[in-house]
Amino acid sequence: MIRLLAGIAVKHLLARKRQSLVSLMGITLGVAFFLAISSLMQGSERDFIHRLVDNSPHITIVDQFRNPRLQPAQQLHPTGAVEIRHVKPLTETRGIRGYEQTLDYLHTIPGLLASPTLAGQALVSFAGKDIGITLNGVIPSQITTVTTIQNYMRQGSIDDLNANPDGIVIGDQLARDLSLEMDNNLNVSTTDGQTRTFKIIGIFHTGRATYDDSQVFVQLKRVQALLDRPNRANNIIIKLDDPYQARTVAAAIENRVGYKSISWQEAFEDLMNTLMIRNIIMYTVVSAVLVVAAFGIYNVISTVVMEKQRDVAILKSMGFRAHDIELVFLIQGVALGLVGNLTGLPLGSVLMIGLQRIQIKFPGGGDAVNIPIAWDWPQFAIAAAFALTAAVLAALLPARKAARLQPVDILRGGT
Fold first, then answer.
1. Are 45 and 279 in contact (CB under 8 A)?
2. How far apart are CA 47 and CA 44, in angstroms?
3. Any residues with CB less than 8 A from the CB of 353 and at least 6 apart, and which?
4. 295 CB neighbour count, 10 Å cutoff
5. Which three-class secondary structure string do you get for the chain?
6. Looking at residue 204, what DSSP letter applies?
7. Average per-residue pLDDT for the chain
8. Predicted local distance difference test score (pLDDT) of residue 373
9. Beta strands 215-219 and 129-138: pairing type?
10. Is 60 exceeded by the pLDDT of residue 365?
11. Rounded mean pLDDT of 329-345?
12. Do residues 344 and 29 touch, judged by C-beta distance below 8 A?
């Protein structure tokens, strides 16, 4: 029976070849553009997150507490009506106390790498020029395992700090601003007036102007002495094997050590929300293409129903039920949807290959980069499912209209 109904449905479509072909092309192009655009957007999002995760700490422990410390009166009367005003915190040396013990604990966590840093504001002077910078005290052998700064070195290496205790690594933008070169000496002054001379042993370029002209790296012990913070670090940078576990791991670390632990998801929460909104807009736009194509299917099947009313009446007179008539026209929608998928998915793949081969060279950048494309199977499944659903829904209304036709009225009107 199904074979008979399918045969009738195909004959109806072939009777209007031009209109059926136009509807089929609409579905094909809709699927192809849906697949190409969605894979482009997903690929760009994945590339953005990949760069963001690679160039940022997965977790950063800072020398702050998420909530202010409770005062003794609040601890003594936690449920009482207690109000405390004008409390001035005790003056203390900033930094994570006992950061070595914290590092020992972190190293027990599988898939985790950590490195302490001490950052402070300073002033660099050379040839009569003064520029404010962020002075980063690091352990060279550890910082290269949790950051990508080594990948951006143009001259020298971060590891050279081991052999040169009084060495400093600066950004190329800062070097240009001060007319500096490798092996030049650079005076660094802190906010409390201490000054020390360092020798430039490395120059890096990240492409971020605000970073390249303000961040410098020195051995941790030297910065501790310069800032008068012995045995202190104010940040612990953490890298994970699975960066998407950062939020969970950060919560566990904060619960254990007490200091505020910030995951990359928390640090860039506004950007993640923006990406989610962008995805909603993207799927809405590309879905509109298939909705427009579905109207073409609706138009074709509605026209077939109008032209084949007498045929429908004859079929019902021969014993075909309303469900059978409805199924005939639904099969037409399914057929257009399936064939549209069979032609649209390969065409979409060709578009994806073409987009992937496009190279873009940004002004002032380095090598040309290819447009990122996501080849995940869910993209293909979503495109196919949406196209088939749109085709079936477009055929449903005309199919129900055909099923409600009364053969007596049609045959009487034709005589």
1. yes
2. 5
3. none
4. 13
5. CHHHHHHHHHHHHHHCHHHHHHHHHHHHHHHHHHHHHHHHHHHHHHHHHHHHHHHCCCEEEECCCCCCCCCHHHHHCCCCCCCCCCCCCCCCCCCECCHHHHHHHHCCCCCEEEEEEEEEEEEEEECCEEEEEEEEEECHHHHHHHCCHHHHEEEECCCHHHHCCCEEEEEHHHHHHHCCCCCCEEEEEECCCCEEEEEEEEEECCCCHHHHCCEEEEEHHHHHHHCCCCCCECEEEEEECCHHHHHHHHHHHHHHHCCCEEEHHHHCHHHHHHHHHHHHHHHHHHHHHHHHHHHHHHHHHHHHHHHCHHHHHHHHHCCCCHHHHHHHHHHHHHHHHHHHHHHHHHHHHHHHHHHHCCEECCCCCCCCEECCCCCCHHHHHHHHHHHHHHHHHHHHHHHHHHHCCCHHHHHHHHC
6. E
7. 81
8. 87
9. parallel
10. no
11. 85
12. yes
Residues in the chain: 415
- Residues 370, 17 contacting (CB under 8 angstroms): no
Whole-prediction pTM = 0.66
